[in-house]
Amino acid sequence: MATAGRDRARRRKSFCGGPAPRVRQSRRKITSRDGGMRSVPSPQFASDQMAKINGRRAPVPLSTAVSTQMKRMPSSSTGPEILIRGELHRRGLRFRVNHPRLPGRPDIAFTAARLAVFVDGCFWHSCPDHRVFPKNNSDWWRDKLERNVARDREKDAQLDLMGWIVVHVWEHEDPAAAADAIERLWRSRRQLAARRAGPRSQERAAASL
Q1: What DSSP designation does 96 have?
Q2: Which of 9, 13, 35, 117 has the highest CB neighbour number within 10 Å of its CB?
Q3: pTM, whole model, 2 decimals?
Q4: Domains of the chain, with CATH numbers?
Q5: Phi/psi zone of residue 7: left (φ > 0), alpha (ψ -120 to 50 degrees), beta?
Q6: What strand order describes the sheet that includes 108-110?
Q7: pLDDT tens-digit map of 76-130
Q8: How many other C-beta atoms can be found within 10 angstroms of the C-beta atom of residue 93?
């Protein structure tokens, strides 16, 4: 064991005789609920990656507390998303969550109906009713949020070219009302697909309504 320790110490030395520079770990291992191990990005690495936008690092935050709170905001499975998914599930609708093969990884995807749903946060996606630009580092934040909106339009266009219908729901909207609108559109899309496929498909679609 002592020999192995000395070998490891020698390997840490650089070619010039000094200690090799320490490399910040980009990933760490955690224990999942089922007892297995999985690798996830370390918090500092993830923070640094989020701070790099188009080659520019984020400015130094003036409030550490606000910065920490914003870093903890989930990027998926937010409260509004979960509520809307629950409403849709109670209606008997089945869907995929964060479909990895679709542009933008829609929050809810009905693959048969080719219907993609995004539940957008009012701050991050510049809701017209609740849009607010932070006063601190306002120019940087304005550029960042405008790029978010531009990316939304880009992924919408990509999905449209693939034959998908895109629905955006703001986080402040009533989950039940949003689910009603999504269900109506889902049913109409199913009926349209059945008409194109033929009589048998129409019968199956009618039976599922």
Answers
A1: B
A2: 117
A3: 0.62
A4: 74-208 (3.40.960.10)
A5: alpha
A6: 108-110, 115-120, 165-170
A7: 679 999 999 999 999 999 999 999 999 999 999 999 999 999 999 998 899 988 8
A8: 18
